[in-house]
Amino acid sequence: MRVSRAGGKNLSRWELDELLAKAALLLEAAATSDAINGGMTEPTVRLHANGEYTSDKSFQQTVIHPFVAAYHQEEFSRAADRYGELYEREPPGDRRPVNDIYSEATSTRSTLSLGLRQTRRSMDSES
Per the confidence metrics, is the pTM higher than 0.85? Predict the structure, then answer.
């Protein structure tokens, strides 16, 4: 799997998964830091022997998660309400018999091909 079109190392699936996991961990740590620095949660971070950490997530659980869920639910509901519009048909306009449409198309084509033939003949006569 190539990461950059401008060169670079080919990543294996395992390396890409590891990279994405580290990016997710970095974003989580940044969110925790913002909550602590903003005074929204207690400044307590517990480090565990396996390298993981935990902190107070009550602000995310009581404010952020419900807000995001409600926002997406509202957006989904608006889209679902308009879903039927995708399948509405407008009443047909003026209908014409197929023969009329076909005869117009063939007369236009024959006029066009006649003009091309005349142009070709004049070019051939000039050379």
Answer: no
